[in-house]
Design a protein that fits this description.
It is a single chain. This protein is mainly α. Helix content is 57%, strand content 6%. The chain is built from 26 helices and 9 strands. It is elongated, with a radius of gyration of 28 Å.
């Protein structure tokens, strides 16, 4: 972090390292030492369990809290770009330090994407901040942010694992006993992974007499984790053993770690109280208040497995890798407890909003949590019927994306209904809703400019709609797929699917779709160098509009714009002006 003092032209600094390397701890240490030297700062953490593409996270809560901190009404800004520009201006105006911790859930972690941002608002914000101005943004992430590569005012710091001597000092600070050579060997075995050494040091001191040689008593963990994650989880497996009584039952400490594994974010004690009151077997049943308090204290002070939030003492948290491990253990070894806990959380969160249909993204947050926990409990259809469809999407309106312009939030909700985003919809949904969810996800991905990802769910929805004889839905989605293929440059595919979309529309008897799909197909043909055939389709579309749809005689709105694009190339300027005048009359 010395770069802050010697590189005054840097406006964004990103620290890149794998999970458990110590990015967040380093940043908190630096902030604590300089808190009195910084007048204005905002700190936000996005971290959740891992960087898998199955994660779909929205930046909306950050913008909501940031605008609140500046005393600005977030509803004044209708689009992601507007929100991003407004926040960038505020940060610059107030010379405010912005810290974005754990950005990876907003990035593509799969091969071929190179850490590209999924969230449109965050992409715009960082692009604005990566320019010359008077504020500073610090980012921590597991993957280098693609949009910040090769920027003049951006500096990247990859953080390596600890050197052998530094790892030795860490173990010594945790009161681990052994010769320097023995400690150095232990550091090398885990490749200097900071979190693993932290867990190992505490485990040895608390349970194994502080003797470094007793680390070989930890059982070897074999699972589908990467090498460094495997080392950390091996130590956690030891804790799991130590926190189990002679009858094979989990002790209070292990029950608490299991509870934290239900979440991918810091959680309030009041929420855990809900689960305690349910007395869930193998999870909270028989857990006494005194044992609970002692477990919280010991996990925080003795075992150092819980993180502290000085500004929010009511929050309990642990490192994401710790939550991931114990959450997976609960799901695999106590599936009934896992299901009952998530079901209880589903009912808790869906009851929080007093308004059945909240009118803002902020007010909908409990409903988002309800969907997440409902789907984790296997209640996909119930979560859709009771929360997502009537209260979030407001049935066919697509309220979250279309009215609130919160497309990323809409997509984050829909991700829970996929067993493999965006490839496989959960089998817990009825066939009718599998097709609908796939279609909605495709629309959101396309609206976010993620055309390549949108193709699969849209194609799947078409096939499902055809099987269900829902030709109107098939026609609409085929129309969308043709546009996606056009945007991706696959002209021949776009033409074939465009023609098919017109056939579906005509068979459905929906004259509006017959008209609109012809203009999409015609637009594809125009761009493919087939203007004569395109013109024929535009003429047909206009005739359909005149015959079946009341209103202006000429094609208008986006459909008319497409037509005008074609006839301009033919030199028919006066006709374009005529159509433009019609559009002005309609708008006034």
């Amino acid at each position: 972090l010395l770069g802050l003092n010697v590189c005054p032209n840097n406006r964004v600094i990103q620290f890149i390292a794998s999970g458990g390397t110590g990015k967040t701890k380093l940043l908190r240490h630096w902030l604590n030492k300089r808190e009195n030297q910084i007048d204005n700062y905002l700190v936000w953490s996005f971290y959740s369990q891992g960087t898998s593409d199955s994660k779909q996270v929205s930046a909306t809560p950050l913008f909501t809290e940031a605008f609140k901190a500046f005393g600005v009404d977030a509803s004044d800004y209708n689009t992601d770009e507007d929100r991003a520009d407004a926040l960038a201006d505020l940060l610059t105006e107030h010379q405010c330090l912005l810290v974005l911790d754990g950005l990876e859930p907003l990035q593509h972690g799969g091969s071929g994407f190179n850490g590209q941002l999924k969230d449109r608002a965050m992409k715009r914000l960082l692009q604005r901040l990566a320019q010359q101005h008077s504020s500073l943004c610090i980012v921590t992430t597991r993957i280098q942010v693609h949009e910040l590569r090769d920027r003049a005012h951006v500096i990247s710091h990859p953080l390596d694992n600890l050197h052998t001597d530094d790892g030795l000092q860490l173990l010594r600070s945790l009161a681990v006993r052994g010769s320097d050579k023995e400690l150095q060997t232990a550091v090398s075995e885990v490749e200097g992974h900071a979190l693993t050494l932290h867990l190992l040091g505490n485990a040895l001191t608390t349970h194994l007499g502080s003797d470094i040689r007793k680390r070989d008593t930890l059982e070897e963990l074999v699972d589908d984790f990467d090498e460094q994650g495997r080392h950390a989880f091996k130590v956690m497996q030891g804790y799991q053993h130590w926190f189990t009584n002679d009858n094979g039952e989990p002790m209070a400490e292990l029950q608490l770690l299991y509870l934290l594994g239900l979440f991918d974010h810091p959680i309030e004690m009041a929420v855990l109280q809900i689960l305690w009151d349910k007395q869930i077997p193998c999870l909270t049943a028989g857990l006494r208040a005194k044992a609970w308090k002692v477990a919280v204290r010991d996990l925080r002070d003795k075992h150092r497995l819980l993180s502290q939030h000085g500004e929010r003492p009511d929050l309990l948290d642990s490192h994401p890798l710790i939550r991931e491990y114990f959450g997976r253990q609960l799901q695999q070894k106590q599936p009934e407890a896992w299901q009952q806990a998530h079901e209880a959380l589903y009912h808790y969160y869906k009851a929080i909003p007093k308004d059945k249909q909240p009118g803002s993204v902020e007010a909908m947050q409990p409903l988002f949590h309800a969907v997440a926990h409902g789907c984790a409990a296997g209640l996909h259809q119930q979560a859709l019927d009771e929360v997502c469809y009537p209260r979030i999407r407001r049935e066919h309106k697509g309220y979250l994306a279309k009215d609130l312009c919160a497309v990323s939030d809409d997509l984050a909700v829909l991700a829970h209904f996929f067993s493999q985003p965006w490839m496989v919809v959960s089998e817990n949904l009825r066939a009718k809703w599998q097709a609908a969810v796939s279609s909605w996800a495709g629309y959101c991905l396309g609206a976010l400019g993620r055309f390549g990802e949108a193709v699969v769910p849209v194609q799947a929805s078409i096939e499902m709609f055809i099987k269900q004889s829902r030709l109107q839905d098939a026609a609409q989605n085929a129309n969308n797929l043709s546009e996606l293929k056009l945007n991706l440059g696959f002209m021949s595919d776009a033409i074939i699917i465009g023609e098919r979309s017109v056939d579906y529309a005509d068979q459905s008897g929906d004259y509006g779709l017959s008209m609109s799909n012809r203009t999409t197909y015609a637009d594809v043909l125009h761009k493919a160098g087939q203007p004569t055939k395109a013109l024929t389709l535009f003429v047909e579309a206009e005739k359909i509009q005149k015959k079946y749809l009341p209103g202006p005689p000429l094609l208008y709105s986006f459909f008319g714009f497409r037509y005008c694009e074609l006839i301009l190339t033919q030199g028919r300027t006066s006709e374009v002006i005529k159509r433009g005048n019609q559009s002005i009359r309609i708008s006034t």
